[in-house]
Amino acid sequence: MNYDIQLKNNINKNYIFTLLQNIDLTRGIWMIYLAGKGMSLTQLGLLEMIFHITSFLMEVPTGAVADIFGRKISRILGRVLSLISVVILLAADGFLWFAISFVFTALSFNLESGAGEALIYDSLKEIGEEDRYMKISGRKEVFYQVAGVISFLAGGYMAAKSYNIAFAITIIIGAAAVLQSFSFKEPAVDRKKEEQKVKNIFLNQLKESLRVVKSNPRIVSLIVFTEIILTFCTCIFFYLQNFMKGEGYNEAIIGVVYAASFVAAALTASWVHRIERVIKEQGILLIIPFV
User: Fold this and answer.
1) Exposure winner among 119, 193, 216, 267, fewest CB in 10 A?
2) For residues 221 and 175, what is the distance between their CA atoms, to the nearest angstrom?
3) Is the confidence at residue 30, as pLDDT, over 80?
4) Are 29 and 254 in contact, with CB atoms under 8 Å apart?
5) Averaged over 11-15, what is the pLDDT?
6) Burial code of 220-239, b = ≥16 C-beta within 10 A, e = fewer?
7) Which of 55-59, 119-123, 137-141 has the lowest mean pLDDT?
8) Angle subtended at Cα 178 by Cα 191 and Cα 61, rounded to the nearest 5 degrees
């Protein structure tokens, strides 16, 4: 098949991949599941901490994987590790194995983060259509939001009957995502030479990150602000599962609540660019803590 056609096909394949990647029926019930396995709130917090520490420490090394071996390989590895993490979560029955599962989950996020976007942007750049990237990203967001709604509704419904069913379906869909990730064509643009030393890639990425931060202190402020807000949002998002369960709501109702929040987020996201034109960036930053 013609090289340019293969790169064009990456776009539609990515929509399907986004859907498969993000349909996770355990997304809205994993904390209840782990609590049922005997994990205390403190242990649940530690597991979440392990996830974020792993993600932070491995961001640069996993980024180098995409530079050395390609975005496609990074994406495939990410899906494989994600699949392994769900299998471990289903089979495990103790804190140590749960922690290992969370490490794999963090690595899977890191391997996909940036690599997936770069694969699509580079595909468009190779065929001279990079100006379509924002439009394509917008369409991809629709698939992401649809996957989220499906995950919460179906996951809650299935979990109310059996957690094993929810996990089994997630594993099957995860396996499909692994297989589908092999279908992408790796774009040749801006690939680093394979003979370049890994150490140099790590150092170059670290130096470039520090250079950007140093030259623009405002980025640091935005990162810190965002992380503080996300910390509270994450706590509410996850611990609300156990709170609602304790209040007598079953998993199906919890799934509906989370799905509704996802729909609201999707609708809000579609209006952000209009809102930003009216109240500007400063206004957006001021109202974020209250929404």
Assistant:
1) 193
2) 40
3) yes
4) yes
5) 93
6) eeeeeeeeeeeeeeeeeeee
7) 137-141
8) 45
> What are the tokens at 137?
């990203």
- Element housing 185 (H / E): none
Question: How does DSSP classify residue 191?
Answer: P
Cα separation, 111 vs 93, whole angstroms: 27
219 pLDDT more than 80:
no
Query: First vs last Cα of the chain: how many Å apart?
Result: 49
pLDDT score for 39: 92
Q: Which residue has the tokens 């890639």?
A: 201
Question: Is pLDDT of 268 > 70?
Answer: yes
Is the per-residue pLDDT at 288 higher than 90? no
How far, in Å, CA of 256 to CA of 264, rounded?
12
- Specify the pLDDT at position 22: 93
CA atoms within 13 Å, Cβ hemisphere of 273: 3
Q: How many CB atoms lie within 10 A of CB 92?
A: 16
What class is the 3-189+196-290 domain? mainly alpha
Q: Which residue has the tokens 């790796």?
A: 186
Helix (H) or strand (E) holding 220: helix 217-246
Burial of 69 (0-12, 13-18, 19+ CB in 10 A): middle
Kindly state the tokens that stand for 151. 């995950």
Question: How do residues 190-217 score in pLDDT, each as one tens digit?
Answer: 554 444 444 565 566 667 767 777 787 7
Two tokens at 13?
A: 């394949």
Q: For residue 200, count other CB atoms closer than 10 A to its CB.
A: 11
